Amino acid sequence: MAASDSRPVPRKNTAFRVYFPILDADGDPVSGAAGLDSERSIDGAAFADCTNEATEIGSSGIYYLDLTASEMNGDGVVVRIQTSTSGAKTTPIILYPEELGDLRVDVQMISGDSAAADNLEAAADGTGYNLGGGSVVAASVTGNVNGSVASVATGGITAASIAADAIGASELAADAAAEIAAAVRTEIATELGRVDATISSRASQVSVTTIDDFLDTEIAQLVSDVTTLLARLTSGRASALDNLDATVSSRATPAQVNSEVVDAINVDTYGEPGSVPAATVSLVTKINWLFALARNRITQTSTTQALRNDGDTSNIATASVSDDGTTFVRAEWT
Predict the structure, then answer these.
(1) Residue 155 pLDDT
(2) This prediction's pTM
(3) Residue in 31, 97, 35, 29 with CA at minimum distance from that of residue 69
(4) Residue 263 has pLDDT above 80, yes or no
């Protein structure tokens, strides 16, 4: 907030800066008022501390208080500024924040001119429009416009804005028909001029016949070649062609397949199992389980055997063990 929040009329739900003096019992301004405590009540609610505190302007005894928008969000706002300075009196401030529709306005002059206000009233109440010095009746705006028009904007007159039969022979100038006819003749001449070659330069019947004979020969040869090709494509060959659903160049070569297999076996790495694999898992998972059993540390107590992980920080799996003196049993890993 800033000094710009100061306004002649406080506004509802809008930050507002209010200026005021703090006076003593004699009505003199109190400079350097101590223990300032600014509170506000909105629409008769209990007083509560203001967001900001009063600030003195120099050593004048005149202060200002910045009220936030939320602290101005009421129809009536009461502010009281209290101070612990001996002899100083509590300063009350009562505000009626303005909102749309609060003020009744009766404009008597505009720019010091009462006639301008009268003209504006006429424009608003529908009796006439005298905004430019010449009165225009409201009915002529909603109906027809009588008199000359300086100009019409592009697109101002459309087919929809012209009534049927609105323009007849009597509305056209005497030479309008002659001008339209001349324009039509000019357009026809222009189009005829676009015929840029004479008929005599077109192909003769002899030329067309020669082309026709050539096409007959080529089409006959094409039909013969297709017939021969179809004869050579037995049903077995046709089936084989159907199986070629992609070009041979896109298929992997034996060397490429061998490289991928070697890569999967000799290059790719696989982490140790984190738990007991199920009975139906991939071969890679089963091999990892056997590798962990063969490599990792195994501990055993009188009742439990445990397979530790590579870092020996936790169990991968455990199995209960028992011995009845005849049979040693290690149960399934879990």
Answers:
(1) 78
(2) 0.38
(3) 97
(4) yes
For the sheet with 16-21, list strands across it.
Answer: 16-21, 62-67, 55-56
**pLDDT by residue (tens digit) across 45-82?**
999 999 999 999 999 999 999 999 999 999 999 999 99
Which H or E element spans position 140? helix 138-142
Task: Give 319's strand partners.
Answer: 305
How far is Cα 118 from Cα 131, in angstroms, rounded to an integer?
10
Q: Residue 33: which of 86, 74, 100, 111 has the closest Cα? A: 86
Cα–Cα distance for residue pair 98/184, rounded to 1 Å:
69
Cβ burial of 226 (10 Å; 0-12, 13-18, 19+) is exposed
| C-alpha to C-alpha distance for 133 and 217, rounded to whole angstroms | 89
Neighbours of 187 (CB within 10 A): 10
307 within 8 A of 292, measured Cβ to Cβ: yes
Q: How confident is the model at residue 288 (pLDDT cuts 50, 70, 90)?
A: very high
DSSP code string of 100-137: TT--------BTTBHHHHHHHHHHHHTS-B-SSSS-B-
Sheet holding 304-308, edge to edge: 298-300, 304-308, 315-323, 328-330
Report the pLDDT value the prediction gives residue 193, as an integer from 0 to 100: 72
d(CA 62, CA 22) in angstroms, rounded, equals: 7
**Alpha helices (H) in 61-110, listed in sequence order:** none
312 pLDDT more than 90: yes
